[in-house]
Structure formats: structure tokens, C-alpha cells
Amino acid sequence: MHLLPNSLPGRLCAILLVTVFFTACNSKDDIELPDNNIRIRKNAKDLSSQEMADYVDAILTLKATPSPYSDTLSYYDQFVRWHQMAVEKKLCTTFGVAHANPAFPAWHRKLLILYEDALREVSGLDVALPYWDWTDQASTDAVFSPQLMGGNGDPNEEYAVMDGPFRKDNWTVNLFTIRTNYIGLNPHPWLVRNFGATLPGPDYPGYPVSLPTIADINGCLDIETYDVEPWGCGDGRQQESFRFCLEGFLQLTCDGAQAMHNIGHDWVAGFFEVPVDTVKMLPVQAVNSFCDSIMTGTVPNNIRVGSMEPLDVSPNDPAFFMHHCNVDRIWYEWQQIPGNERKYEPVSGAPNGYNLTDEMYPFDLPQFQNRGSMNRHGLTPESMLSTTDLGYDYEL
């Protein structure tokens, strides 16, 4: 692994030297954090120039630092892999812990706090995650500015991101989707975005792709029940579920048009065609390491999707974390409503990983225990219910 790409900005050299020294002088099990005062997560549009620079530098340093949890991954790519592992489990079992079930907000809150801790570890700075308010054009403009995530993809480069700190020559994608319906659609080792682009057909969002509105968010916040049986998708009363609404399903089957969190992924990534001499279906396959299986399928060779679309590896785009920080902020707002503070269903009786005191996969695996900051904040949905206990609040 090349830990210091030649294209990394010169201003990071000093930070990287500190990171190397830090790694050499501390074991993987003995990582210190900056001061543990309550962190305040801000709207991206309210960040100062220095806060933007510190946040970006910390991400780039994370990408260039070995993971304390793996001998083969960078620290940044470790987060992509954890998300991929959760999706792998879903693909070969009847349930998964990270998506389409009650633990969706708690699982991603755990991922975000680990990520925030990691940024602070490698930078030595009091970094707090900024959030992308989908309803605020000024927030969207700030998130996708050259100072933060960079902008839309270039149509002359198959919509590769060509500006900002995560541009094509400065940010490498190392982990690729194992979802067979996406493998051939996102082959690039760089970030791809095509804001709001859509295609007709059963496998692509033929519905209009637009960002959620204030009314959409208020509609979710007005739902009093956290979640309802059968705790996922299928026949049930999920239209009465805050979690189901927040995740962004508009139908009980979880097929068809999407909203909220789900459509945010669609909007950033985009679905689009590229010119090819002959349009044909290409055979694809991938190995699912969770259940040691070969997954096969076919995809059209003229269709592409952006980096935020394949669910398993969507954290390859650093915009993922600002997007999910907003998801977490909406849950935080719902929790501020009297009576909602520690509300969570199911307490028991659901598949392992959904219940209030179940340890969440893959954070609970032995190879991740007692390393880095894994156990600092707990491993269950219950341990994720209070942001104050986790050491952060939101500036609303």
C-alpha cells in the first residue's frame, strides 16, 4: 500500500510525519484522543475556512494512515469495509443490522462516532463532523465546494470528480462493490458523481431524484413511534415508523421510489449512460466473504452509477459521512421531543442485532475488540441513544 501518494497536497507532509511518529510510539491498543469536551457538530455552511481545512486534512491523513484494526487497509478504508461487511451479512442471511431495520440509526451513529474519533486521533485536532442539511441550498453549496467535498463530476471524464481535495488524481477508491447488480456499473478507482441524474427502468430510479424538503423532514419528526413490527420491510405498519420514514422508504416492500436518507445517496451518485459501440449485457461476479459464496449476475455495459450508489461501499465518497451526519442530526432532533429521549423498539424478540441491548455487527467481532476506540462508546443500540453521553451535540 502506498501510504503517501505523490499527489497528496504539500500542506499535509507535516501532519503525515506526526501521524507516522504517533503510530510508531503508540500501540494499536493505546491511541489517545484530544480533549474530551462536548463536540459541537455544525452545518457545513457555518464552518470557518480553518475548520474546513482541518476537516479535509484530517480525512486525507486518515486515508494515508494504516488502520489499527487491519493490516491491509488504510484507516479511512476501514470504515468502507465495516459498512461493506454489514451489507454482505444482509445479502446472505435473512436480516442485517445496518439497513432496513430498527438499528439503522444506531448502527450509523456508531460508525460516525468511530470516524470522528479516528479523525481526531490522526490529526490531533478537536475535529467535529459537519452535517449536510439537504433542505438548505447554502449547505449543499458548502458541502460540494472545492474547499470541502469538491463538486459534481465532469461529463467529459465519465463524471469523475475533478476538483477539490478528493479529485481524480488525489483520491483513490480501493474497495469495490460485491453487489452483482452494481459491479460493472461503478468500475472506477476514483470518485464519480452526477447530481440528480436518473434513468427509467426497474433497476434504476425512474422517479424524479430531488433532495428532501423541510416538509419531508417534519413529516418524519411528527411520527411518535420509533419503529413497528415486523421491524423491516414487508407487510406491516412501517408508515407509522419514524425509522422507516427517516431511512427513506415510501412503500412497505422497500421497492420503488425513495426519500430522505435513501434519495440522498441517489442524488449525489446519479444513474447515467456512457457511449459504447455495442450495448450488451456483461456477466459479473463477486465473492461475498461473509458466507463464502460466489454471487453472479449480468449488468448492461453502457450504464454507470456514482460512488455513493452501491450501498455496500458508498462510504468511498467522503460526502457519505456528512450525509449521514444529517441523518443522525434528524434522529437527534426527534429525540429532543419530550418522551422520545430514549425511545427504541424492539427491546427484545427481534433478530439478533435489532434489539435494544444486542451488540451490533461487525463492531462486535473479536478481531476488532480492544483495538483503537472500538469499545469506548459501547456496541449496542442502547449505548447510542444519548449524544451527550457520546460526547457531542448539534448546532441547529
Descriptive notes:
There is one protein chain. The chain has about 400 residues and is of the alpha+beta class. It has one domain (about 10-150, about 175-190, about 200-385): di-copper center containing domain from catechol oxidase (Orthogonal Bundle). It has helices at about 15-25, 50-65, 75-90, 105-125, 135-145, 215-220, 240-245, 260-270, 320-335, 385-390, and strands at about 40, 155, 160, 270-275, 280-290, 295-300, 305, 390-395. Strands 1-8 form a two-stranded parallel sheet. A two-stranded antiparallel ribbon has the order 2-3. It has a two-stranded antiparallel sheet with strand order 4-7. Strand 5 (about 280-290) and strand 6 form a beta hairpin. Helix 2 (about 50-65) crosses helix 4 and helix 4 (about 105-125) packs across helix 9. The N and C termini lie far apart (about 40 Å). This is Tyrosinase copper-binding domain-containing protein. One of its GO terms (molecular function) is metal ion binding. It comes from Flavilitoribacter nigricans (strain ATCC 23147 / DSM 23189 / NBRC 102662 / NCIMB 1420 / SS-2). Belongs to the tyrosinase family.
